[in-house]
Write a structure and sequence with these properties.
Blueprint: E1 8-18, E2 21-28, E3 40-43, E4 46-55, E5 64-70, H1 72-77, E6 88-93, E7 112-122, E8 125-131, H2 134-137, E9 145-148, E10 151-154, E11 158-159, E12 162-167, H3 169-174, E13 185-190, H4 192-205
Antiparallel strand pairs: 1-2, 1-6, 2-5, 3-4, 3-6, 4-5, 7-8, 7-13, 8-12, 9-10, 9-13, 11-12
Length: 206
């Protein structure tokens, strides 16, 4: 489980095709001796398993590298298939017992891909209008939570399949949202509580 609070922004160094999957190598600021084989790390909201890691000798600010495999299903239903070397990736390590629970509960199981329709910048902040896939729009509510590229965000307004969010300067600085623009595809995971509420309402109607 995750909280949607990004703990690092890594850079995709290489993509290697291995049959139906792709192996991704990412440089990060995580100390290499704090990483573990088999650990879960969210990459732009996609929970992936570490299959390799080590220290980096390059003097570019990054101190470690790690590798993950993106399977065919992941490549099909998320933006992972679009990632190319140089891509900035929002990273979050899995929760441990005793960690502070900020943001909201995020599973790392991306539900689909949304489209960024517009961006308006003012006073160091950024206002985004986003179109959700039709099958997910009913789970998005004003003042509710949604995970976009792994970032826990509050929904401002909703109209049919579109909704808006407002990002403060801090979020723009410590995530890859600062570079997001109209036309970008965004991983979306709806709030689990919204999903259960919708299902209960359906069951009551039945």
């Amino acid at each position: 489980m995750f909280t949607g609070l990004i703990s690092d922004v890594g850079t995709l160094e290489s993509v290697t095709s291995r049959g139906d999957l792709k192996r991704l190598k990412i440089a990060s600021h995580y100390p290499h001796d704090s990483l573990e084989m088999g650990a879960s790390v969210a990459h732009n909201g996609v929970c992936m398993t570490l299959v390799g890691f080590g220290p980096r000798a390059e003097n570019d600010g990054f101190v470690s590298w790690h590798e993950v495999d993106a399977a065919a299903e992941t490549l099909a239903v998320t933006t992972a298939g679009d990632w190319a070397p140089g891509e900035k990736i929002n990273l979050e390590r899995a929760l441990r017992l005793g960690d502070e629970l900020g943001g909201h509960m995020v599973s790392g199981h991306v539900d689909g891909v949304a489209t960024l329709l517009s961006r308006r910048d003012f006073d160091g902040m950024a206002h985004f209008e986003i179109e959700a896939p039709k099958n997910l729009a009913r789970f998005i509510a004003e003042k509710g939570s949604v995970a976009l590229n792994g970032t826990s965000l509050t929904v401002n307004k909703v109209e049919k399949n579109t909704f808006t969010i407002l990002l403060i300067p801090h979020t723009l600085d410590v995530t890859n949202w600062g570079a997001r623009k109209a036309g970008d595809r965004i991983n979306i995971e709806v709030d689990t509580m919204a999903r259960y509420a919708a299902r209960l309402a359906e069951a009551a109607g039945e």
